[in-house]
Amino acid sequence: MYAIRLGDDGAELRPLEPWHAEEFLAHLDRGRDFVNQYIPFGSRATDVTTAREALQRYADMRAADTASVHGLWLDGTLVGGVLTLNFDAANGSCEVGCWLEPAATGRGLVTRAMRVLIDWAVEQRGIHRVEWVAASGNTASIAVARRLGMTRDGVRRAAHLHHGVRHDLEVWSVLAPEWRARDRHPDPR
Amino acid sequence: MYAIRLGDDGAELRPLEPWHAEEFLAHLDRGRDFVNQYIPFGSRATDVTTAREALQRYADMRAADTASVHGLWLDGTLVGGVLTLNFDAANGSCEVGCWLEPAATGRGLVTRAMRVLIDWAVEQRGIHRVEWVAASGNTASIAVARRLGMTRDGVRRAAHLHHGVRHDLEVWSVLAPEWRARDRHPDPR
Amino acid sequence: MYAIRLGDDGAELRPLEPWHAEEFLAHLDRGRDFVNQYIPFGSRATDVTTAREALQRYADMRAADTASVHGLWLDGTLVGGVLTLNFDAANGSCEVGCWLEPAATGRGLVTRAMRVLIDWAVEQRGIHRVEWVAASGNTASIAVARRLGMTRDGVRRAAHLHHGVRHDLEVWSVLAPEWRARDRHPDPR
Amino acid sequence: MYAIRLGDDGAELRPLEPWHAEEFLAHLDRGRDFVNQYIPFGSRATDVTTAREALQRYADMRAADTASVHGLWLDGTLVGGVLTLNFDAANGSCEVGCWLEPAATGRGLVTRAMRVLIDWAVEQRGIHRVEWVAASGNTASIAVARRLGMTRDGVRRAAHLHHGVRHDLEVWSVLAPEWRARDRHPDPR
Amino acid sequence: MYAIRLGDDGAELRPLEPWHAEEFLAHLDRGRDFVNQYIPFGSRATDVTTAREALQRYADMRAADTASVHGLWLDGTLVGGVLTLNFDAANGSCEVGCWLEPAATGRGLVTRAMRVLIDWAVEQRGIHRVEWVAASGNTASIAVARRLGMTRDGVRRAAHLHHGVRHDLEVWSVLAPEWRARDRHPDPR
Amino acid sequence: MYAIRLGDDGAELRPLEPWHAEEFLAHLDRGRDFVNQYIPFGSRATDVTTAREALQRYADMRAADTASVHGLWLDGTLVGGVLTLNFDAANGSCEVGCWLEPAATGRGLVTRAMRVLIDWAVEQRGIHRVEWVAASGNTASIAVARRLGMTRDGVRRAAHLHHGVRHDLEVWSVLAPEWRARDRHPDPR
């Protein structure tokens, strides 16, 4: 029942929950190869049952306040999403991430959603450090981190095994004071 | 981060979650006697730890898709809430309920919130029967059921023991077709 | 090892437990269509493994003191049973129910067993309200409620989805003082 | 609701369940020193909460079909009980045991109850070997084993630490064919 | 990473853990009929998944300090193992056991490993009674008990059902003072 | 029972397990302030019960193959330890860490233990990337990473809240080929 309008083009952010299993599966089936290029997101969700299990894992993490997943709907179609991971309110840190099906790229959907998500983490939940992790070759993902005003903290060499290949993982972050300063002087994009 | 405006008077509906424990406790402390007149809602939440446990039980039920709890904020202060209980998507049925602190009564907050909640249950989740249960003496609660266009199904005699007294429980309900018809011809209130 | 004679016709009431799985399955196979006319009782128990799982669910609820299931044996053959559900000793309330295979109907088996079960609930466990729930079309079940001296509390409209059809559920009940009064002045049946 | 008369002196065997916590505690308080002479039975049950926990552990084992506990009532007072332990239907073996408060000794209560329990284990549940374990110094317990027609299998030296002292444990047993033969030619006691 | 040399013939004792599943399976496949002559050890481990599950059960018991399993490697090949069972530090008692594939017999591997294991149990963990259980027909196993200086406590008649046949189980034991005395005056073997 | 000699000075590496609770507590009590300067290791272990709980958490993670903890004993006294964390055999990555009480510093104990641990991770468990994380101010810890031939991957800014202060976390790593190359050309230390 909750939804956040992300602009005038029909883009909305909503909680993504186990009862969306069929919609989630249809979305994955449209974007599976693209989504799984660098990350295994949703790769175990290959039918309605496993799609529900994937969403249930997020629902359980949300109940434990360690993660949350939010879908991006465009004109009523689920086309991707953003999420928090390793959410640790006591330590004031979390990771954020995203995924999109190909048809939804190029519109700044993730950047718009991420601003809402990071605002909430920083202002409502007291998160001090928001982290972004991306395979070094995933230039689109790294571009989002840069667009969000993040700083590159380093490269965890060979940290991720995906489809039999070892990938370096870039670690980017934005701290609460940086995020707030940027809010006052937004970049022209 | 999600919020639904319920009107122009600063009333909002938001997910109520374990991290709201301190706010939830302060709210209960303002309204405990009033809230617990007919129902034990929040009665075990007497400090921050037990307030968090109470909200955690709802968070776990939400993860299991059997209940959900939503807070009512008035000008930024938590003043009550609405909830689903015994949510059974396969059977197409659920119960709904509410609570308010005294200062927030008389504004139709619950009725407004309940319309959003029932709309979601009926239109998004396929619920066919929405049930309302209230002690026979709880005239304020029964008035809400009537205002929502519900029908009285019966009285479960002596079904609820509260503060050492047995209460009859009135059962009211609205079915999906009735809810939709009412949407097209809303009552003048 | 426990058994309660219900009369001179070889009818006995005994705890029905997971180790009865084969006997329970054979009984269900004789009465499945009849038993499942209005309720899904035992419908998931289609082989010895699932029959044991069904009985295990009751065994777990019995350990939690929230339900109990008792078989009816006629001349050594399991032909049906009675059960408590939503047993809530703190609130002083429970639901009771029953099922029979066709060959065992017409002998008052359920009524006899139910008297034993309700006596125990009321006199041993302090239950104040015993509830009976039946689909409106299930005249046989409703006749038992009437025979037990219960009162119709109301009709939960469209509350039960069974085999794709919505059924109204009648709610009947007997309260402890009524039950005890009836014991002193039993009806002539 | 289940009860088995053990004779004409008002002795009955009934399932002992968590809701008997207060009655169980009162009984233990009358017999604690006597009962705990050789075994720790009930020693952790020192108030209603811990008494309920002790009975809950048995309830959980009963649900798992690995143990069961049955109270002995004499003229309506709980005075002791018998139990199965390490119940293993697949292997056809179990242990049985007992406890009594002092006022209930000398009446053969345990022997009578044990005959019912072993009959059930052997004839209903297919147990081939029923084992009895007693500290070597516990002559009363060993006398029961002998009275039940059991054979001494051996002595597990120093196997039990109780109140800071190591006790040898005698192991006695009766096998199904022996039990049945004894039924046909009962001893004169 | 831990390993204990058991002599100059390349025999080593190491923790056997879930990640050894493939090696464990290959070993079982070489010795299954021999190992399962009297005991069901590893009989459910018939592919890598079930082999890992079998080792996981031991890993969980080790975490609970109720059992431990240690592999015997001969020149880098897993050929058998020793284990503790029913480990009860509070009571000062445990059971020990072993298994070997045929090619590894006749070298005293188990006896050597068992001395290390019992030394640890007695001297590090305060175990007073170490028990050995073997089917009466398992002369090789009983010979090890004798070689370890154990005493026969008795015979639990018909206590073990294996492959449809009931076996008597011999119970042997060694107590801490006996074990220490033997250390000072080792037998000539 | 397992132990690995780390040199001629009486230093040994052994599994650290829940039954070491008293020894672990005494060790922490000698070094608590020093150990907790940059990390919360053992800070919740303030009596025997909480010390056992701390070790039990590691035991459970070890059973799940996600972590392991190993104590360093010097002449029979527990003086510190090394551990694996976030052990992920499927991904080929893990973190390693350490702690020491003050009296045990300056002897290269951790470096020696770490070589054994990393050798095992890389050669036995197929770990490709071994990570070391240290607060930027923890020069002693960073010196160990350097001594182990690790490379600094970056600095996760403000990632760790400890004693109310935010610390940058340096991330160092060594990859399997680097580790093996270093084995062939060890540094002169």
UniProtKB/TrEMBL annotation, chains A, B, C, D, E, F:
This is GNAT family N-acetyltransferase. Pfam families: Acetyltransf_3. Residues 11-172 form the N-acetyltransferase domain. Coiled coil: none annotated. PROSITE patterns: GNAT.
